């Protein structure tokens, strides 16, 4: 029995993955992939911030050799937002005290 029953391992397709900034045209597929991967549902405003680069850095992985003829199909992504520790959820894990040595 195959370890990957849903994959056609005999396919001769070789993906060509490259990376680029996420852009507004990626909105629909970004929401779909995010929903498929993560159990947390985000507000649509989050996704608009991602595709327009508002306070969020984002990069997409695209398959330049997709079998459906798309040469720029978003297949993955990473998003990040940089905040100071005292302004984040991390602060609740540590009692923020500039005199306190954590390590």
Q: What structural class do the secondary elements suggest?
A: alpha+beta
Coarse shape:
elongated
Helices, by number, come to 2
Secondary-structure element order, N to C: EHHEE
> What about the largest sheet?
3 strands, antiparallel
Key features of this structure:
alpha+beta; three-stranded antiparallel sheet; 19% helix; single chain; elongated; 2 helices
Structure, briefly:
The chain has 103 residues and is α+β, with helices and mostly antiparallel strands. It has helices at residues 27-37, 44-52, and strands spanning 17-21, 57-63, 73-80. The protein is elongated.
How does this model look, in words?
With 103 residues, the protein is of the alpha+beta class. Helix content is 19%, strand content 19%. The protein contains two helices and three strands. It has helices spanning 27-37, 44-52; strands spanning 17-21, 57-63, 73-80. A three-stranded antiparallel β-sheet has the order 1-2-3. Mean pLDDT is 78; it is low at 1-9.
């Amino acid at each position: 029995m195959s370890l990957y029953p849903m994959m056609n391992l005999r396919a001769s397709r070789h993906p060509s993955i490259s990376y680029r900034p996420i852009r507004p045209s990626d909105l629909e597929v970004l929401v779909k992939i995010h929903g498929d991967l993560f159990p947390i549902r985000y507000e649509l405003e989050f996704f608009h911030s991602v595709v327009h680069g508002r306070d969020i850095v984002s990069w997409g992985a695209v398959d330049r050799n997709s079998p459906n003829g798309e040469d720029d199909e978003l297949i993955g992504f990473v998003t990040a937002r940089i905040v100071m520790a005292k302004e984040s959820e991390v602060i609740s894990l540590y009692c923020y005290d500039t005199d306190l040595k954590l390590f």
